[in-house]
Write a structure and sequence with these properties.
The structure is a homodimer. By secondary structure, chain A is α/β, with parallel strands linked by helices. Chain A has 17 helices and 20 strands. In chain A, the strands form four sheets. Chain A has an eight-stranded mixed beta sheet with strand order 1-2-6-3-9-10-11-12, sandwiched between helices. Chain A has an eight-stranded mixed beta sheet with strand order 15-14-13-16-17-20-18-19, with helices on both faces. A two-stranded parallel sheet of chain A has the order 4-5. In chain A, strand 16, helix 14 and strand 17 form a beta-alpha-beta unit. The longest helix of chain A is centred in the middle third of the chain and has 16 residues. Chain A is elongated and about 95 Å long. The two termini of chain A are 52 Å apart. The interface between A and B is large, with 69 and 69 residues.
Chain lengths: 614, 614
């Protein structure tokens, strides 16, 4: 993994000249959510790129707890920013295209009003008297900055961790002002475990004798030990066990020589001591307490019902993304928001990115090959976006080519897709299960179908779909469908995937719950050639295409005939509305004994009008 | 989950009268591993049950970092012990049968010599001048206690967490004195992540201004804040995210009213404050630093080679067990030790117990139904042990009945096992893959076979095997075999499992690497009835027994014929030494066109003498 951890980087240097830093003074009084008032607020911010004449190309980037407005360098001579990887010319958030804004959050200590600024009433720094702020307060201040910049509607709001909290508040509190929202590596609220770590960190600061009830600014020493302890602890939670092992286990007993009064017996100890020490130089303990409490109080709910209620006001496109090894913000928490958004019928894509980098993954280069194009493709998309393929040289040209799953034999899939598309009526809303890189949905989109959704397991294919402007949910069909509503779609498609699903019955039932009709295509394992192979040779059937696998390594795990599938449907009260049996070698439809003569079948299924069934 | 966490329980009460506490004074000087010397050592210990006249029934129980000698109550009037669940009459460590010993470890503060005892040279408590101790030092002190008790050889040493470290040292440093060793929820060394948490905890203590270089005993206040912070932090690591959610998320914003100067805004905060506060009352900060450093320095290695070298001296039976949700001591670390022990050809069983309770699981009632009988069965076993079934009313009678896997159809399995057993020569060493509850291995054991090993996925079946005195490794055949050596066994058996394995080729190769011969039994999917079903009816074949599944729900995922398997063997250079084809309905061997007429086949395979192959 890359060594350049944001949370530990030198990118935000204490006292480094930030030549592009701007400040905006907001006259007060500014009322805060929890009842406090600030007589005035200063916002520190930076911008990159040019605002379009119609102000339609603004992207607001929101930072994490220890970040600031310096998200990226402005030129080669500038100091590094915390998200240089993501923001700049030709980068995923392309500053040649987008006008990027990043502001230091309210309550921080990096230019925006916070506990270390003067309280006009006393002439001393606020200290611990600084009123409690919430993520909503941070967003309200940002909204006034956005007003000032002449932006009515943000093209997008993007942020990770606490930045993701802000993005979520933007989308739900200012629905008319947000076109697209990308909360990354975040959650609707902290887990009890993450909350507990914050509590211990705050206690370390508050019980440091040098904290002096928060008025340590004039004292010879501040709560440096407490703040460093809090930072060390938090730092552990930003990494993953795998990345810590890789980073520290080779040199376990050979600490680097760090000038510190903290223990440095082990390499991980000297590393933590160094990080704690550096953090104290650039961050204020009162701000850390203020911002960590704002994180802890953020709460969109923990149940599907509360999440739906919290997210209901939004009116934007969504991209949520999480990282497999992130245990501080487990991807399942983001996925719960995705399920709520699907239930609300809001346009959303979701990708869980394989990573060993833990929570910090969104700041590191290791998995940039996936999350970079994902963000770029999402920003490009939206109603009226030009077809992605037409814009050669754009950032999304980096989109990795997905490896087609073994069952997606190209020529069969083309035939399959043509036939399936012919069965879908104009304008119908389609759910494509196992959608791959979005071939079928792109074909339908070109025909004018809107608001279709794909589900796909392979993250690379998910990135490709998003790059095509297709809403896609990464997920395993064997774990059931996302939380779609009943009859949310006109048609649910399962193309050449039935044979690799474990719980066939549940999947069929779910398809006919969320869609009025299901179109299922699958290889017919009673096709003549295959029957003959078992009958005459006593061998497990093998042929070409979806049958072209050896018995010991086939990705297929179900081997139904056309008749088998029809019998299962009858048994479950599902009507076969239409059947197309195909001889794919000749590209012809089979009418004579299809269970013997067809190698591929497409069934249109419906629960309407079917009798009985369990 | 149970609320009665050890690490948080009242069981070890400050100042509670421990009527059965004994002390032993060991004259010095006692030389320590890292170079220090103690002029004398006092050991606090307790015992339960009666030592047999030949001293053969002693079980040493080793405690975790904050534990002490009071492992269990001695009678109904006694205060609770930290492992009451496990130790007592009729309990897994049955005090009517075993003479149980538990001693407070060197460096602790619960009766045994530690930093809070007087340094004779100064007449003051040792404080931070107490010499660094290692787990080996703890064990050497215990060895002198065991000498004093007249025990030459311990029947078993059992311990979890730091107690597991001690058990590992006992087995490897005193091989002649340990009959059996059960390290539970432990590891060969801390992960980098666990080490990092310890570092932060120690820094909290050492940088507390009241620590006063460890000489705080006469001061008005000790490093209570630092110790409480260390404890709060450690406490989080003992729980799992799931258990914290269950415990704290319902009442997230309603903290209990705890008298504390720590933050108590959230329920988890008040809980941690309470635990930190309680801990300070009963534990000494210097001891915490001493013991956590001993844990951090414990290191049996991180590579297979180093683990093998560390474990090589042992001469005991082993049981290792871990818990799925334990992220402080991840089960994979124990499993690495199991692999090393298998490579060393030491008798070992391994079970990963499904649990949501995290590291504390071994102290809680939630999963006692599995770990209780596992420990009981292991203590009962060993060479010369009476067959378990004969001892009605023993603790192992609680062993849960495993659910047979769906492919283990009883009557077929009996026939299968009889035939397989008939193919195994007297005294051969057998590896049974997918051994279930140990039926075949028990049959072989009754015939005098020794040192056989089973591999089984279902933890309940693993517990049953251990209860039968069979060495068994919990594992998934789809992830490959444990680290057995080449040709460690005479015969590897795969009974009725071939059809549910994903990577068939690798498994066959592995079987013939670790054993000279393989015996594979499997249903023949080209059996006449099945062929006819596909041929005549165009339906996916279904019959009875291993064929008795519907296509949409069969646990089978490979459907080879006898001919298929033989062809795969030929292709991979594997010779079919013997073939038995069976008509199981009639219980007869089939010689006429077995691929058509047999429904069950048993092949004896070998690489010796086979030509070619890939």
């Amino acid at each position: 993994m890359s060594r350049d951890l944001f949370h530990s980087s030198d990118s935000v240097r204490s006292g480094a000249p930030l030549r592009h830093l701007r400040t905006l003074h907001l006259p007060g009084p500014v009322a805060l959510e929890l009842g406090g008032t600030l007589p005035e607020v200063t916002v520190a911010y930076e911008t990159w790129g040019r605002l379009a004449p119609d102000a339609s190309n603004a992207v607001l980037v929101c930072h994490a707890i220890s970040g600031d407005s310096h998200a990226a360098r402005h030129d080669a001579a500038d100091v590094p920013g915390w998200w240089d990887l993501c923001i700049g010319p030709g980068r995923p958030i392309d500053t040649e295209r987008w006008f990027v804004v990043c502001a230091n959050v309210l309550g921080s200590c990096r230019g925006t009003t916070g506990p270390n600024t003067l309280n006009p009433a006393t002439g001393r720094p606020w200290g611990a008297d600084f009123p409690a702020v919430t993520v909503r307060d941070m967003v309200e201040v940002q909204a006034r900055l956005v007003d000032h910049l002449g932006i009515q509607r943000l093209h997008a709001v993007v942020g990770g961790s606490l930045g993701g909290f802000q993005a979520l508040v933007w989308a739900t509190r200012h629905p008319a002002r947000v076109g697209a929202c990308a909360p990354i590596a975040t959650s609707p609220r902290l887990t009890a475990q993450a909350l507990a770590f914050d509590v211990v960190g705050r206690n370390a600061i508050l019980r440091d004798p040098n904290f002096r009830s928060g008025q340590y600014y004039d004292a010879p020493a501040g709560p440096d030990v407490g703040l460093a302890l809090a930072r060390m602890l938090a730092h552990i939670t930003y990494l993953s066990p795998e990345s810590m092992r890789e980073k520290f286990d080779v040199s376990r007993y050979t600490p680097r020589d760090v000038a510190t009064a903290f223990e440095k017996k082990f390499s991980v100890g000297s590393y933590l001591a160094y990080q704690g020490h550096k953090f104290v130089e650039r961050f204020d303990a009162n701000s850390y307490v203020t911002l960590s409490m704002a994180m802890d109080l953020f709460d969109l709910g923990d149940s599907p019902e509360r999440l739906r209620a919290s997210l209901a006001p939004a009116r934007c496109r969504w991209l949520l993304a999480g990282f497999t090894s992130d245990w501080l913000f487990p991807p399942a928490q983001s996925r719960a928001m995705v399920d709520a958004l699907l239930w609300l019928d809001q346009p959303v894509s979701w990708c869980e990115i394989p990573s060993t980098c833990g929570h910090d993954a969104f700041l590191l280069e290791d998995d940039l090959v996936l999350w970079g194009p994902l963000i770029a493709g999402f920003l490009d998309g939206g109603p009226g976006a030009a077809p992605r393929e037409a814009r050669a040289g754009s950032a999304t040209a980096q989109t990795p080519r997905p490896t087609l799953s073994p069952t997606s034999i190209f020529h069969r899939q083309r035939l399959d897709h043509e036939l399936i598309a012919s069965l879908i009526e104009p304008g119908q809303r389609v759910l494509d299960l196992g959608c791959g890189d979005g071939e079928l949905l792109a074909r339908l989109a070109a025909r004018g179908h809107r608001r279709s959704v794909g589900v796909e397991l392979d993250p690379r294919a998910v990135v490709a779909c998003v790059g095509r402007g297709i809403d896609v949910i990464q997920g395993d069909l064997d774990r059931g469908l996302p939380d779609f509503r009943d009859a949310q779609f006109d048609v649910a498609v399962l193309s050449q995937t039935l044979q690799s699903v474990t719980d066939t019955e549940r999947l069929l039932d779910e398809m006919l719950r969320v869609a009025r009709r299901a179109i299922v295509s699958f290889p017919n394992f009673a096709f003549r050639d295959l029957r003959e192979m078992l009958w005459r040779e006593g061998r497990s059937p093998k042929s070409t295409g979806a049958y072209g696998y050896d018995w010991w390594s086939t990705p297929n795990r179900r081997f139904p005939s056309l008749r088998d599938v029809e019998e299962l449907c009858a048994r479950r009260g599902i009507a076969v509305v239409r059947r197309i049996a195909i001889d794919s070698a000749h590209g012809t439809e089979v009418t004579d004994d299809p269970n013997l003569n067809a190698d591929l079948a497409i069934l249109v299924l419906s629960r309407e009008g079917a009798g009985g069934g369990s």
